[in-house]
Design a protein that fits this description.
alpha+beta, 2 domains, 4-stranded antiparallel β-sheet
Length: 288
């Protein structure tokens, strides 16, 4: 079963073929180049963890620059994770890469829908998000070796992203449910936002139910321990030496060890206040 992040990358990749995405496809490809592309003297190579995103990269090179990239069979990276490689070569590819750099700068200046397209490309190549009910909390992040890239992403985000250096790479992340859903909505993943909120609410309700259950169980345990202690103390009293009222209460308590104060009062034909007063007298006598 694909991860939540993989499904979101698939949804974003599927948008590149829609008519509405046409005006800003280059901005999206610029985000992908910055996130997952490596330029050299003869072209650009992408290494991507998602087959739909790899196919989207091929479509974008074809539609925007008329180039025919090569899509290589998947292979593992140094960490054992599958990566798809897409390679585009030649002078036209290098020229296109420079044009995409210019497009990136325009997206940063203008922000708006072009900036959102760049952000979508960046997430497909370097983004990740935990599932809504993840027990360790909410987390969406962009991870890259280039500090400039993560700072560009943070500048385009509608929510503040914290930037840190972790294990030799730079990370821009949000850790609140509001931050995650706002960023997903900014990228146009509205169905994912609804799913995220629904599953997060369900997870919170389940956690609250567990807390209530644990609280009730703890209260029951404390009540049982107190009752056992009380029973042990009262059993040491000599009923013959007690006044009639206290003797009757002692007999009731010993006969009905699990009864509540209200039940003891009803069985003895007393008010709760009177029953409580007599029990306190008995406990005091047992302590003395």
């Amino acid at each position: 079963m694909p991860s939540f992040a993989s499904e979101l990358r698939r949804q974003l990749a599927a948008r590149t073929g829609s008519p509405g995405s046409a005006p800003h496809r280059r901005a999206e490809l610029a985000g992908l180049v910055d996130a997952a592309g490596v330029r050299d003297g003869s072209g650009v190579t992408f290494r991507i963890p998602s087959a739909p995103v790899a196919r989207s990269v091929v479509r974008l090179w074809r539609s925007e620059f008329g180039l025919e990239p090569r899509l290589f069979p998947p292979g593992p990276n140094p960490f054992g994770r599958v990566r798809y490689a897409v390679r585009v070569e030649g002078n036209r590819a290098l020229q296109a890469a420079e044009e995409l750099r210019v497009e990136r700068e325009r997206s940063l200046r203008e922000a708006g829908s072009a900036g959102v397209a760049y952000l979508r490309g960046a997430f497909q190549g370097a983004g990740s998000v935990t599932r809504p009910d993840y027990r360790r909390g909410h987390h969406l992040e962009f991870v890259h070796e280039d500090e400039g890239f993560v700072r560009r992403v943070a500048a385009l985000s509608r929510v503040p992203l914290k930037i840190v250096r972790r294990r030799g790479r730079w990370v821009a992340y949000a850790k609140s449910a509001d931050g995650v859903t706002t960023l997903l909505a900014q990228m146009g993943l509205h169905e994912a936002v609804l799913e995220y909120e629904a599953r997060a609410i369900l997870s919170e309700a389940r956690a609250n139910a567990n807390r209530v259950t644990n609280f009730d169980a703890a209260n029951a345990a404390r009540t049982a321990a107190a009752a056992a202690h009380q029973q042990e103390a009262l059993e040491g009293l000599d009923a013959k030496n007690l006044p009639k009222a206290l003797r009757e209460m002692l007999e009731l308590r010993l006969e009905y060890p699990d009864a509540s104060l209200a039940e003891l009062a009803r069985l003895g034909g007393l008010t709760k206040s009177a029953a409580n007063h007599r029990l306190r007298r008995l406990i005091s006598l047992s302590a003395g």
